[in-house]
UniProtKB/TrEMBL annotation:
<feature type="binding site">
    <location>
        <position position="164"/>
    </location>
    <ligand>
        <name>sn-glycerol 3-phosphate</name>
    </ligand>
</feature>
<comment type="function">
    <text>Catalyzes the reduction of the glycolytic intermediate dihydroxyacetone phosphate (DHAP) to sn-glycerol 3-phosphate (G3P), the key precursor for phospholipid synthesis.</text>
</comment>
<feature type="binding site">
    <location>
        <position position="14"/>
    </location>
    <ligand>
        <name>NADPH</name>
    </ligand>
</feature>
<feature type="binding site">
    <location>
        <begin position="228"/>
        <end position="229"/>
    </location>
    <ligand>
        <name>substrate</name>
    </ligand>
</feature>
<feature type="binding site">
    <location>
        <position position="110"/>
    </location>
    <ligand>
        <name>sn-glycerol 3-phosphate</name>
    </ligand>
</feature>
<dbReference type="GO" id="GO:0051287">
    <property type="term" value="F:NAD binding"/>
</dbReference>
<keyword id="KW-0560">Oxidoreductase</keyword>
<dbReference type="GO" id="GO:0005829">
    <property type="term" value="C:cytosol"/>
</dbReference>
<dbReference type="GO" id="GO:0006650">
    <property type="term" value="P:glycerophospholipid metabolic process"/>
</dbReference>
<dbReference type="Pfam" id="PF07479">
    <property type="entry name" value="NAD_Gly3P_dh_C"/>
</dbReference>
<dbReference type="Pfam" id="PF01210">
    <property type="entry name" value="NAD_Gly3P_dh_N"/>
</dbReference>
<dbReference type="InterPro" id="IPR008927">
    <property type="entry name" value="6-PGluconate_DH-like_C_sf"/>
</dbReference>
<feature type="binding site">
    <location>
        <position position="228"/>
    </location>
    <ligand>
        <name>NADPH</name>
    </ligand>
</feature>
<keyword id="KW-0521">NADP</keyword>
<keyword id="KW-1208">Phospholipid metabolism</keyword>
<feature type="binding site">
    <location>
        <position position="252"/>
    </location>
    <ligand>
        <name>NADPH</name>
    </ligand>
</feature>
<feature type="binding site">
    <location>
        <position position="227"/>
    </location>
    <ligand>
        <name>sn-glycerol 3-phosphate</name>
    </ligand>
</feature>
Length: 300
C-alpha cells in the first residue's frame, strides 16, 4: 500500500467533483469501470493500493462492487454515496462493515451539488465516522473552499443523505403540479420531521437532522433543479413514466430505489413515513395529484 496517497473510485458526477476538490492540495488518483480522459486516471488495482479511498458509486451497486473488486489492505475509506440498499434494506455502513472495520470507514454528508463543487464554489460538508482519528486524517486532503465538520453520528448522516433524496422527489412533484410555495414548504418541513422519526428508530441523533446533513442537504436538494431527484419529481408530475425519466436523466437518482428501501424498513419496524409511502405509490403508478391531495388534506 502506498502511504499518504488518495484515490477516488467512481468517475460519475460526484466522483469527478470530489477528485477535482481533492486534487487542489495534493495528487489525487481516480478510477472507474470505463476508462475516462481525466488527469491522474489509473486502473483499479493502482487505486486500491492507496491508503485513502473515496468511493462514489451508487448505493444499489456497492455490495456487488465490494464483493467483486475490493481487497482490504488496511485502507481508510470515505463513502460518498447517499442511499439505502433496496433489495435488503441494509444501510451502507452495514454493508461496508462486512469488508472494512468501522474505525476505517467515514461517510460524507451535507449540501454539496457536484456541479458547484467542481467549479470550486464554497460549501460545508460533514465527515461522519465512529473514529475522530479518521476525520483528522481525511480533513487535510480537502481544499479551502470546502469547510469540513466532524460528527460521529454515522446512522444520522446516512438516513439524512438517503431520505432527503426521496423528499426531493416529493418536492419536485409538488412544484411540477403547481401546488404553490406553501404546499412545498409544508411538505419539506413535514419531511424533515418524518426523516428524523425514521432515523431515531435506528439510533440517529436529533442534531444531525437540523444540521448540514439533514436540513442543509434537504433544503438544497428539495428546492433546486440541479437535483436529479427533484427533476425526477418534476417528470412524474408531468405524467412521465419512471423508466422514461431515468432514461432522459442518464445519471443516478438514488431516491427512486431508496423510497422502496424506506417503505420496506418502515413496514418491518412499524414506522410512520407517509411521504415516503406516497412517493413509492406514485413510482408504482398512483396519480401524483391524488397522492399530494391525500398527503396535504386534513383527513391524513
Ligand atoms: N452528484 C451529486 O451532486 C452528488 C451525488 N452524491 C451521491 O454519489 C453517488 C454517485 O452519484 P453520481 O456520481 O452523481 O452519479 P452518476 O450517475 O453521475 O455516476 C455514477 C458512477 O457510478 C459508476 N457505477 C455505476 N454502477 C457501477 C458498478 N456496478 N460498479 C462500479 N461503478 C459503477 C458509473 O460508472 C458512474 O461513474 C450517489 O449515491 C449520489 O447520491 C452525493 C453528493 C452529491
Ligand atoms: O446529494 C446531492 C447534493 O447534496 C445531490 O442530489 P441529487 O442526487 O438529487 O442530484
Amino acid at each position: 500500500m502506498t502511504k499518504n496517497s488518495i484515490a477516488v473510485i467512481g468517475a460519475g458526477k460526484w466522483g469527478q467533483a470530489l477528485h477535482f476538490a481533492l486534487s487542489q492540495k495534493q495528487e489525487c488518483l481516480i478510477t472507474s469501470r470505463t476508462k475516462k480522459d481525466i488527469r491522474n486516471f489509473v486502473d483499479l488495482d493502482t487505486a486500491l493500493n492507496c491508503e485513502y479511498l473515496v468511493i462514489a458509486i451508487p448505493a444499489q451497486q456497492i455490495k456487488q462492487w465490494l464483493r467483486d473488486n475490493f481487497v482490504y489492505k488496511n485502507q481508510k475509506i470515505l463513502v460518498a454515496s447517499k442511499g439505502i440498499e433496496a433489495s435488503s434494506g441494509q444501510f451502507l455502513n452495514e454493508i461496508y462493515e462486512e469488508f472494512v472495520p468501522s474505525k476505517n470507514i467515514g461517510f460524507i454528508s451535507g449540501p454539496s451539488f457536484a456541479a458547484e463543487v467542481i467549479k470550486g464554489l464554497p460549501a460545508a460538508i460533514v465527515i461522519n465516522s465512529k473514529s475522530k482519528k479518521l476525520y483528522n486524517e481525511f480533513e487535510p486532503f480537502f481544499p479551502n473552499f470546502l469547510k469540513v465538520y466532524y460528527s460521529k453520528d454515522v446512522i444520522g448522516a446516512e438516513v439524512s443523505g438517503a431520505y432527503k433524496n426521496v423528499l426531493a422527489i416529493a418536492s419536485g412533484i409538488c412544484a411540477g403540479l403547481n401546488l404553490g410555495n406553501n404546499a412545498r414548504a409544508s411538505l419539506i418541513s413535514r419531511g424533515l420531521v418524518e426523516m428524523q422519526r425514521f432515523g431515531k428508530h435506528f439510533g440517529a441523533k436529533k442534531s444531525s437532522f437540523i444540521g448540514l446533513s439533514g436540513a442543509g442537504d434537504l433544503f438544497l436538494t428539495a428546492s433546486s433543479t440541479l437535483s436529479r431527484n427533484y427533476r425526477v419529481g418534476l417528470g412524474l408530475a408531468q405524467g412521465k413514466s419512471i423508466e422514461e425519466i431515468l432514461e432522459e436523466l442518464g445519471e443516478v437518482a438514488e431516491g427512486v430505489m431508496t423510497a422502496e428501501a424506506i417503505n420496506k424498513l418502515s413496514q418491518k419496524h412499524q414506522i410512520y413515513t407517509p411521504i415516503a409511502k406516497e412517493v413509492k405509490l406514485i413510482l408504482d403508478g398512483k396519480n401524483p395529484l391524488d397522492s399530494l391531495k391525500d398527503l396535504l388534506s386534513s383527513n391524513q
